[in-house]
Specification:
homodimer, seven-stranded mixed beta sheet, two-stranded antiparallel ribbon, 45% helix, globular
Chain lengths: 361, 361
């Protein structure tokens, strides 16, 4: 088993990575837990609910199960409230432990429910998508969407453990693997040029779910994310670099309607756009921008943004949480493996939005 | 001006107490704030909205106004969402500052909105009821209600300042003054026997809103609460004593429907019940229990609990956040000025619930 530790002001917690981890979930449950509430959705439950319930039951605690509808479009208050209903109907107290079994949507909602139920109870992340394993389950960002913006309502709230079973990726559709790889290559782009090279060389192995390649990609992604988060839990500075590609990506998701593109697909495309903007504004050379573009394409993500109309694009980006006093700011790359956070002049931004509104490959 | 400081792991903030403080609210707004969102309800707004807006405008920042319907029955997600709608429609960013102008309901909702909007923005408490000034605005407990329990969804989240204008109490109904005094005498009961004596001697002056008496009562209450909160922000131990009377009180509020009795009235009555239970379980002498009972009556709060039926009482109390593994636990007084947190045997609890289900005075 590989373990990566995350240090935050609120404490230290492990990310445990191994094949078959799902059967050893009881190890993550503290002795003083009064009950366990397992939360999942029908899609994941069909594959893994029984195994997770059995494994958690070995802790000797009462295990209740709460099912949420599947999909980004349900990442709202109404669905979140199903968790509160389940906890209250089952008289779960402050020492209950929530377990999030699913992808980023389940993890974000269970995390926010844990942050808010009785003003905060403990929770464990058991991410079942590659995207959640390498990104959303680590670092304590939890949220639900608001009709006017993605992830607008939430909390910084850390899990007590992240339990990653690499075997569960086998039941994922190829499209979700590609979406997850977008966040993997992101770490290469912003912080680790060597890892970017490694990703370029191992695209085929990663897409084929070669166990060693996947395990290393998850481990390295978690290490890099843990490194960033431990320095800046609340996104006051450094942590913002993890949002490379996300300002464009969120606009795509909001513009098309949440759930139309997978989050990772939107981020993949957004990274290609942010690389283009970096050429115009941050001094990235064109060859490097092409490498980002090609790698996004190689992992199987779209590189042609949807035509939302330039002014609508800008409007959608202005509700981004990184906006300050109305100025649009972006994570950009002066070179591969290095990120800066700066505002973009409207002319250059319009140039990128206009250029990419038609197919670019 | 009197200032009491609150120290928490998240930082230090002032409680500023003075007559006319409302006109100096700009002092509480940080220089880097991008905008200010003032939140209130129609009842409070009729008296103080214009003054608060003018005062905040003197900071030079944009001030937007968000109005919520008035009352405990609106302390729910739907009303909370009006704050998020207002913030997003006005493009308020992470450096916006929320200002809660109102009683405990406004303070609790604005606090939870601040904790959750974009995963946390700054907020200022401007409590306009005595209860909020001496209790709910201090200490960082924020929450909304759930149909199955009061304050079940929320966060521990500290304001950057609490601004108390003692003059605003003049427009409060007498019933709200009595409800606020319930929390004032609570501090005497649990932590400061001398202050309990002082309250007994100054009941008439407090109910008549004598400026010196009221200022001292607010200051001493805030000092005692700040002392407790600074030692235990997240209610893992000591802080629980602040819930003296609240397990009974919450059951009254839930049993009658939130808003039927004022929170302070329910707590007042609950303290009389908890004192009776303390005689049976915690060694409180009967004379002291009578003093608690008499003082609750003297400040104008009910001492006759509603007849909810003994088993329904117990059911209502079991969803209390202090419950652990199904056992009911209460804050009790071994003597006036001293509190303990312990479980109560069902027989003694039934005795108190049965006894107080009929008028006791």
């Amino acid at each position: 088993m590989t373990t990566v530790h995350v240090d935050t002001p609120g404490g230290r917690y492990p990310i445990n990575i191994e094949a078959g981890r799902l059967d050893r979930l009881a190890e993550a449950i503290p002795h003083d837990a009064t009950s366990i509430a397992l939360v999942s959705n029908p899609t994941v439950a069909a594959h893994y609910k029984a195994r997770a319930q059995d494994a958690l039951g070995r802790s000797g605690k009462r295990v209740i199960y709460i099912e949420l509808p599947d999909g980004e479009s349900y990442k709202d208050w109404q669905t979140l409230n199903l968790i509160f209903d389940g906890l209250l109907q089952n008289r779960c107290d402050r020492k209950a432990v929530l377990v999030a079994l699913g992808g980023g949507v389940i993890g974000d909602m269970v995390g926010f429910a844990a942050a808010s139920y009785m003003r905060g109870i403990r929770f464990v992340q058991v991410p079942t998508t590659l995207l959640a394993q390498v990104d959303s389950s680590v670092g304590g960002k939890t949220a639900i969407n608001h009709p006017l913006g993605k992830n607008m309502i939430g909390a910084f709230y850390q899990p007590i453990a992240v339990e990653i079973d690499t075997d569960v990726l086998k039941t994922l559709p190829a499209r979700e693997i590609s979406a997850g790889l977008a966040e993997v290559i992101k770490y290469g782009c912003i912080i680790d040029a060597q890892f970017f090279d490694w990703c370029e060389q191992n695209v085929a192995a990663l897409r084929a779910l070669d166990r060693d390649a996947v395990t290393y990609a998850i481990q390295r992604s978690c290490e890099l994310k843990a490194h960033v988060v431990s320095q800046d839990e609340r996104e006051s500075g450094l942590r913002a670099i993890l949002n490379f590609g996300h300002t464009f990506g969120h606009a795509i998701e909001a513009g098309l309607g949440f759930g139309e593109w997978l989050h990772g697909e939107a981020v993949g495309c957004g990274m290609a756009q942010a690389a283009e903007l970096s050429v115009l504004v941050a001094g990235l050379d064109e060859a490097s921008a092409r490498r980002v573009h090609s790698l996004v394409h190689a992992i199987g993500c779209p590189v042609t943004p949807p035509n939302l109309g330039t002014e609508h694009w800008i409007e959608l980006m202005q509700v981004d949480k990184k906006t300050e006093g109305g100025t649009l700011r972006f994570i950009m790359l002066p070179e591969i493996g290095k990120a800066v956070f700066q505002s973009a002049p409207m002319d250059e931004l319009r140039q990128v939005l206009h250029k990419t509104a038609v197919p670019v490959l």
